[in-house]
């Protein structure tokens, strides 16, 4: 039997550039309201969340600009690929995210879209602050030094 910490899930889409472009703060796991054709399309693994973000409107959090392509077999019952999608969070979490965006100028960035162990579509979002160009260069230098240090350690034995 697997340990409780070990989660089994299928990753559908990941936003790799988010950790490079933003300083990631607190992360949240949210449910996402989808139609049937969207779920079927996600199961094929073709979604992208690279250019997307979340926004607080009317006491709710909405996922904006996430691309879930149309499911070919759905015909006329299909969905719009880049429609707004509601995220399901606790009220306390919604207030926390909305206040951080309004007062502190932070952004809500999606990090990963996946199916959890129960087969439910979930999205991992994070409060993030945009990095400046010099911060990105510093991150790049640190990453390359870590790689070089790993090579040197392997060579020494």
Automatic annotation (TrEMBL):
Entry GO terms, CC: cytosol
Highest taxon, organism lineage: Bacteria
Region (Disordered): 132-157
An MF annotation (GO) of this entry: RNA binding
PROSITE patterns named in the record: SSRP (PS01317)
Family according to the record: Belongs to the SmpB family.
Function comment: Required for rescue of stalled ribosomes mediated by trans-translation. Binds to transfer-messenger RNA (tmRNA), required for stable association of tmRNA with ribosomes. tmRNA and SmpB together mimic tRNA shape, replacing the anticodon stem-loop with SmpB. tmRNA is encoded by the ssrA gene; the 2 termini fold to resemble tRNA(Ala) and it encodes a 'tag peptide', a short internal open reading frame. During trans-translation Ala-aminoacylated tmRNA acts like a tRNA, entering the A-site of stalled ribosomes, displacing the stalled mRNA.
Name of the protein this chain belongs to: SsrA-binding protein
Gene, per the UniProt record: smpB
């Amino acid at each position: 039997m697997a340990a409780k910490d070990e989660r089994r899930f299928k990753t559908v889409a990941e936003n790799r550039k988010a950790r490079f472009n933003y300083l990631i703060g607190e992360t949240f796991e949210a449910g996402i309201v989808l139609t049937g054709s969207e779920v079927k399309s996600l199961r094929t693994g073709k979604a992208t969340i690279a250019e997307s973000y979340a926004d607080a409107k009317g006491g709710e959090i909405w996922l904006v600009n996430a691309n879930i392509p149309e499911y070919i077999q759905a015909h006329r019952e299909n969905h719009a690929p880049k429609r707004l999608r509601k995220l399901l969070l606790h009220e306390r979490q919604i207030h926390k995210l909305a206040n951080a965006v309004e007062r502190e100028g932070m952004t809500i960035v999606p990090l990963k879209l996946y199916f959890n162990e129960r087969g439910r579509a979930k999205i991992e979002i994070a409060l993030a602050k945009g990095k400046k160009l010099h911060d990105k260069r510093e991150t790049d230098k640190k990453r390359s030094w870590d790689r070089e240090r790993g090579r040197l350690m392997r060579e020494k034995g």
